[in-house]
Write a structure and sequence with these properties.
mainly beta; mini-chromosome maintenance (MCM) complex, chain A, domain 1; Thrombin, subunit H; 2 domains; six-stranded mixed β-sheet; six-stranded antiparallel barrel; 12 strands; secreted; serine protease; EC 3.4.21.-
């Protein structure tokens, strides 16, 4: 060992020498007698200076002996535990059952996609609230959280049958009946930032289509009573916000469940403008 050691440490490590393999030297590291293990090859088993079973390993992985080295205590015992070298690091006979260092796994980065946006991001529109109601065409960008959900079937490659509201960069809230009992249809795409779903109409919109990864209906949805008619759609890709694509805010805890009698809500969508009438391709409010 070409470094300065406390008196006796070098001799102690040399005494714990197990064997040498090429440029590598192995030392003996203690183990509890009650713990059994299988030998991993010549030199992996050893006996500590206290006559207990050990495993020969890099001293950096044997916290018990590493502490002695750092604290410069029990140098004779440390020397007697030397069982080789790994590059320039001594290997020691580490007692089985002691705090042997476990392989460190690199933590996976958290996926922040899908998190609900803050109030400084959601529910914002570049247009004032003095909108015309009763099924009139909406203005481009006035409802940036509106999403059209597209379906395909063996008979029709694309059919815009439902709408939803963007609540984050990965999730859309929609009705449960748009997810269940849809026959041979499959919800496969979500269109954001659009005004008129007819591609031939020049409405100055620049919509984007995002594949649907998964659609989940609420577990308590009752199709017969039409109760708890709500579902969640997960998009395959994250959405970049803009003036024409922005999430809506979900109710805050103090607002959720409050009495909204007397308030005037807006209803927006591409649905029918009259009872049992045809659906509108232009976004209505």
């Amino acid at each position: 060992v070409n470094r300065r050691w406390q008196p006796g440490v070098k001799e102690y490590l040399q005494a714990a020498l197990c064997y040498k393999q090429g440029s590598r030297v192995y030392t003996c590291c203690p183990i509890e007698k009650s713990v059994s293990f299988q030998s991993e090859g010549a030199g992996s088993d050893c006996q500590t200076p206290r006559q207990s079973p050990g495993r020969c390993m890099n001293i950096r992985k044997c916290s018990e002996l590493l502490d002695l080295l750092v604290k410069r205590e029990q140098t004779e015992y440390l020397k007697a535990s030397l069982c080789g070298f790994e590059n320039r690091d001594p290997k020691v006979c580490c007692p089985i059952g002691s705090n042997m260092e476990q392989p460190q796994t690199q933590p996976q980065p958290m996926d922040r996609s899908g998190e609900l946006p803050g109030r400084d991001v959601c529910g914002l529109s570049d247009f004032p609230n003095n909108r015309v109601v009763n099924g009139q065409p909406a203005v481009l960008g006035s409802w940036p959280w509106m999403v059209a959900l597209g379906y395909r079937s063996p008979k029709k490659p694309l059919d815009w049958l439902c709408g939803g509201s963007l609540i984050s960069d990965r999730y859309v809230v929609t009705a449960a009946h748009c997810i269940t009992n849809i026959g041979s249809r499959t919800m496969y795409v979500a269109r954001l930032g659009d005004l008129n779903l007819d591609d031939k109409v020049a409405d100055r919109a620049s919509p984007i289509d995002v594949p649907v990864e998964r659609a989940i209906a609420h577990e308590n949805y009752n199709s017969a009573l039409h109760t708890v008619d709500i579902g969640l759609v997960k998009l395959k890709n994250r959405v970049q916000y803009s003036n024409f694509i922005r999430p809506i805010c979900l109710p805050a805890s103090k607002t959720f469940g409050s009495d909204l009698t007397g308030y005037s809500p807006f209803v927006v969508g591409w649905g029918a403008t009259s009872y049992r009438g045809p659906a509108s391709m232009a976004l209505q409010e």
